[in-house]
């Protein structure tokens, strides 16, 4: 509130009187204490006046530091952030009895005098002289506000010299404070000054300002303070530490009663009201105010939010400025956190991995189509006690927002090669020969334009099944040789770029000058790149949203202390792959969750509260060295990544095999049997609220890819027949069969015989000639010629002796 254009004559006279009183009558400048005349005998009126004229005429009264609130998606408090626990309130939002109490005890003539209370100063001077010391203070509320503001400004600046100047015991400081007090009175109303004072003052126990104090001691708002509560708080300002009712209840009670007596003396309340109030106990009802993330309801989500906001340019020019604003700006930060999901995630991860295990369990859950981060949890609690397994390191989120470079995700990366293959027209029914072990020529793997060529050979082994597989069985059974061959066909570029477009923070495709740390390699499909659980949840949520990628978003909006929206964070989405491609991936990955799938046997199938099966899809992942296992699964409404990684107390990777994890000895570890149940524990808490929404089935084109006619090779030489099949775009697998019509050594036909998906394996059969007659079986000839099966037809296996 700015001052009127012209001050009332009474105010002008008061200010002139203040100057005169300081410079001539008393030789006293007061800022909290009355100074004996003898102490300033060396100062004459002219010097004081010149000093006053040289001072700035306005006091910098910027925004007061306030606490920031972080809320979940429903508006419930997660935690607060503050350097000073303060919530500004206008004078109209502070109870009348509170303003009466503070004025009565600190400056009862506040509305009658100017910057300096001449009567109060004279009274303090006489009293102090009579007592040969400082007994009474003569500072007005305006002078007290000036002192508090100067100290506040000095602390905010971080300037040591400014801090010393604001607190030094000198006449120059007191002259400076008086000049600023006069300026405040000239430029602001009495109500503005009182409001600012009540919001600035320290009330002890970490509470700055009247609203924080009211909440801290009594769990009420400043507007609802009672007489006894107001008197208690008014009494604290003089000595917040000495009268702190949480530490010194007796002194606080005594001080409260002094305030009540003073209010009665000034006839603000009646003597009867004061006497009755003095009989009441302090009536404390302390509120535990959480500051920071450690003791919040979601510590690592809170940590993620803070670090995410420090990257947002609208909060300041650099991270240091943004952090300072977060801890002093009085913002309300509305987040995407689902507190029910968070509690379920915390329970799930800590029941499967104990804090002191040589392992880290982590869960991250995202809403497809929005990118809203619903929950993140890890097995090691936030804190500094290593013996209890506590840590401040956030292992769940990408490194730019956390503290971990991530973990290899194993076969969960096969989904990116699957998506790239479908995008290139390779149908889900395409078959590929996947032997137990195969050596690949790396020069056959194409890279992105401008990327280095690959050289050498690479021997790949399966850890599951082998044989001819299509995209369904090769994925569900997680066949390594199948997927490396599939990447040979797609090239390395498309799977890598797809993963990046779906949220994986890949920024080192070709490594350093020696190729170290290369990410974009033929082994990419086996998940050898380090990623975080949140990145994997974000990526798989893209499949759930039919190819629409939405960047992980922990914050919905930021509001200022008046409730005005400063910034709204809308979903940041784009179509990473076509809906048809995503439908194909979903059709393949849901097989893990359906009866007979790897995940299904570990209880990962989902059903809602009505008993309806909730369609879901998933992919398992286990690293080759057993240092990490994954289970990443989703429904159309929610995607969750579960990870358990071997790590010692400082986070260095180690094998899970041979470890006790969650109280269970693990001789080996797998994604389905280890991470899958942890994923299921969380998802079973969420599935009751999920609709039984089905995935969109793949189109015929996605199902079959490009269908190609198989050339007729019947009766041709085997080499000639194989060459014809390869020229048509097929892989060839040889087998043999008996044929009455084709001479031995020639092609007897193919399977399939008419058409197949482009790139599929076509089995070429070599004729062995007519099948020889089986030898006669010995036995009772009455049972039929040739040792028949007793049915009287004298034939065995459908063919009699020739």
Could you please describe the fold and organization of this structure?
This protein has four domains: 9-63 and 93-278, Biosynthetic peptidoglycan transglycosylase-like (Penicillin binding protein transpeptidase fold); 407-555 and 570-689, Beta-lactamase (3-Layer(aba) Sandwich); 706-767, Trypsin Inhibitor V, Chain A; 776-802, no CATH class. With 802 residues, it is an alpha+beta fold. The radius of gyration is 40 Å and the shape is elongated. The protein is 34% helix and 15% strand. The strands form ten sheets. A five-stranded mixed β-sheet has the order 2-1-3-13-14, with helices on one face. Mean pLDDT is 86; it is low at 1-7, 15-46, 131-137 and 781-802. α5 packs across α8.
Note the topology:
Layout: H1 9-25, H2 45-54, E1 68-71, E2 77-81, H3 96-106, H4 118-131, H5 141-157, H6 160-167, H7 171-187, H8 190-200, H9 210-218, H10 227-236, H11 249-265, H12 271-278, H13 299-309, H14 319-326, E3 332-335, H15 339-352, E4 359-366, E5 373-378, E6 407-408, H16 414-423, E7 431-434, E8 437-441, E9 457-461, E10 467-470, H17 471-476, H18 480-490, H19 493-501, E11 530-531, H20 533-544, E12 548-550, E13 555-559, E14 565-568, E15 573-575, H21 579-593, E16 606-607, E17 613-614, E18 617-622, E19 628-634, E20 639-646, E21 659-661, E22 664-666, H22 671-686, H23 700-704, E23 707-709, H24 718-727, E24 731-737, E25 747-751, E26 755-757, E27 761-767
Parallel strand pairs: 1-3, 24-27
Antiparallel strand pairs: 1-2, 3-13, 4-5, 4-20, 6-11, 7-10, 8-9, 12-15, 13-14, 16-17, 18-19, 19-20, 21-22, 23-26, 25-27
């Amino acid at each position: 509130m700015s001052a009127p254009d012209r001050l009332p004559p009474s105010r002008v006279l008061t200010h002139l009187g203040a100057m005169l009183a300081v410079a001539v009558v008393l030789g006293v400048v007061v800022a909290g204490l009355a100074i004996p005349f003898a102490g300033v005998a060396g100062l004459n009126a002219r010097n004081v006046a010149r000093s006053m004229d040289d001072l700035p005429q306005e006091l910098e009264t910027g925004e007061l530091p306030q606490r920031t609130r972080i809320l979940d998606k429903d508006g419930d408090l997660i935690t607060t952030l503050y350097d000073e626990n303060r919530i500004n309130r206008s004078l109209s939002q502070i109870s009348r009895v509170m303003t009466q109490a503070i004025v009565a005890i600190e400056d009862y003539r506040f509305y009658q005098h100017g910057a300096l209370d001449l009567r109060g100063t004279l009274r303090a001077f006489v009293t102090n002289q009579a007592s040969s010391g400082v007994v009474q203070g003569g500072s007005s509320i305006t002078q007290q506000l000036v002192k508090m503001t100067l100290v506040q400004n000095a602390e905010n600046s971080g300037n040591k010299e400014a801090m010393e100047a604001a607190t030094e015991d000198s006449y120059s400081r007191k002259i400076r404070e008086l000049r600023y007090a006069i300026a405040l009175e000239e430029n602001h109303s009495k109500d503005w000054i009182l409001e600012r004072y009540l919001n600035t003052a320290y009330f002890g126990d970490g509470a700055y300002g009247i609203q924080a104090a009211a909440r801290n001691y009594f769990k009420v708002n400043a507007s609802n303070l009672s007489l006894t509560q107001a008197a208690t708080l008014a009494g604290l300002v003089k000595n917040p530490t000495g009268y702190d009712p949480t530490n010194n209840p007796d002194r606080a009670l005594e001080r409260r009663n002094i305030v009540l007596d003073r209010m009665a003396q000034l006839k603000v309340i009646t003597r009867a009201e004061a006497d009755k109030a003095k009989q009441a106990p302090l009536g404390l009802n302390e509120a535990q105010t959480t500051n920071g993330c450690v003791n919040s309801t979601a510590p690592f989500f809170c940590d993620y939010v803070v670090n995410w906001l420090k990257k947002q340019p609208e909060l300041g020019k650099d991270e240091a400025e943004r952090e300072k604003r977060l801890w002093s700006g009085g913002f309300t930060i509305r987040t995407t956190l689902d507190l029910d999901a968070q509690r379920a995630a915390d329970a799930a991860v800590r029941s499967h991995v104990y804090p002191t295990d040589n392992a880290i369990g982590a869960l991250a859950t995202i809403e497809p189509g929005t990118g809203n981060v619903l929950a993140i949890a890890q097995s090691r609690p936030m804190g500094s006690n290593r013996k209890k397994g506590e840590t401040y390191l956030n292992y769940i989120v990408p490194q730019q927002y956390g503290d971990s470079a991530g973990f290899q995700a194993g076969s969960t990366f096969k989904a990116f090669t699957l998506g790239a293959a479908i995008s290139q027209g390779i149908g889900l029914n395409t078959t590929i020969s996947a032997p137990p072990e195969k050596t690949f020529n790396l020069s056959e793997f194409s890279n992105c334009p401008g990327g280095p060529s690959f050289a050498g050979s690479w021997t790949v082994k399966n850890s599951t099944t082998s044989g001819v597989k299509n995209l369904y069985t090769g994925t569900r059974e997680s066949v390594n040789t199948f997927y490396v061959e599939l990447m040979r066909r797609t090239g390395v570029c498309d799977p890598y770029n797809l993963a990046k477009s779906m949220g994986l923070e890949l920024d080192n495709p070709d490594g350093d000058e020696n190729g170290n740390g290369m990410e974009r390699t033929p082994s990419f499909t086996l998940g050898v790149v380090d990623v975080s659980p949140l990145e994997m949840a974000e990526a798989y949520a893209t499949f759930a949203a039919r190819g629409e990628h939405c960047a992980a978003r922990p914050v919905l909006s930021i509001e200022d202390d008046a409730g005005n929206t400063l910034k709204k964070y809308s979903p940041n989405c784009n179509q990473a792959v076509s809906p048809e491609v995503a439908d194909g991936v979903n059709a393949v990955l849901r097989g893990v969750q359906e009866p007979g799938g790897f995940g299904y046997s570990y209880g990962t199938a989902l059903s809602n509260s009505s008993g309806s099966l909730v369609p879901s899809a998933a992919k398992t992942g286990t690293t080759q060295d057993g240092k990490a296992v994954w289970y990443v699964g989703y429904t159309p409404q929610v995607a969750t990544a579960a990870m358990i990684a071997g790590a010692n107390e400082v986070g260095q990777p180690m094998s899970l095999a041979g470890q006790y994890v969650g109280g269970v000895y693990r001789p080996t570890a797998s994604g389905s049997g280890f991470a899958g149940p942890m994923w299921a524990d969380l998802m079973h808490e969420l599935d009751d609220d999920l609709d039984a929404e089905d995935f969109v089935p793949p189109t015929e084109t996605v199902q079959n890819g490009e269908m190609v006619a198989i050339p007729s090779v019947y009766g041709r030489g085997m080499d000639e027949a194989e060459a014809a099949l390869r020229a048509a775009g097929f892989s060839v697998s040889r087998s043999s069969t008996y044929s009455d019509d084709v001479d031995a050594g020639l092609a007897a036909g193919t399977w399939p015989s008419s058409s197949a998906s482009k790139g599929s394996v076509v089995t070429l059969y070599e004729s062995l000639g007519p099948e020889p007659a089986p030898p006669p079986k010995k036995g009772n000839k009455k049972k039929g010629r040739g040792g028949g099966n007793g049915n009287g037809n004298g034939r065995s296996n459908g063919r009699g002796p020739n």
